[in-house]
Amino acid sequence: MRTVEHFHAYRWIGQRATLDREDGVRRTPMDSADPAVRSSPFPPFRMCDYLLKPAGQICITTTTVGDAVEWLAKQFDELAPSLAHPGRLGPDPRTSLVEEAVRYLHYADSVSRGYWLIGERYAALAVVHCPDFHAPHYPCPAS
């Protein structure tokens, strides 16, 4: 098992049309030379690419799995009343999120979830292990 250094948490909520329009920015690797890609507020497709975004996009930084999971659970609780299709998430989506997050984060991996919300909106939540083992050469955004 790897030693857990710390985690950075990210949250984005916005209109589906905006997210669709920015699809190219989200797919472009963050290690590209394009500064617009790094500064984009939109969630990247690769989890490790969150670490190349500005530190101002970090919601919290924590050194414990418990705090990271607590943050995710709180975010889910805030979003739950606005979920567009809660029945599609299974019988207990909050418990599933918490259990999976504990499992992934305990082994120094990252976790993300996306939820469709009423009003054609989308919410993206992510907790990223830093350093990320998929891109150990990425610098910590908070340093």
Largest sheet: spatial strand order: 2-1-4-3
Main beta-sheet annotation: 4 strands, antiparallel
Structural class: alpha+beta
Tertiary shape: globular
Radius of gyration: 15 Å
* Fraction in beta strands: 15-25%
Low-pLDDT runs = none
- Terminal CA distance reads 25 Å
What is the count of DSSP helices, taking H or I runs of 4+ residues?
Answer: 5
Mean pLDDT: 89
What does this structure look like?
Strand 3 and strand 4 form a beta hairpin. With 143 residues, the protein is of the alpha+beta class. The mean pLDDT is 89. The chain has 5 helices and 4 strands.
Highlighted features:
143 residues, alpha+beta, 4-stranded antiparallel beta sheet, 5 helices, 4 strands, 21% strand
Task: Please summarize what this structure is.
The protein is an alpha+beta fold.
Layout of SSEs?
Elements: E1 6-15, H1 16-21, H2 23-27, H3 35-39, E2 60-62, H4 65-79, H5 93-106, E3 111-117, E4 121-130
Antiparallel strand pairs: 1-2, 1-4, 3-4
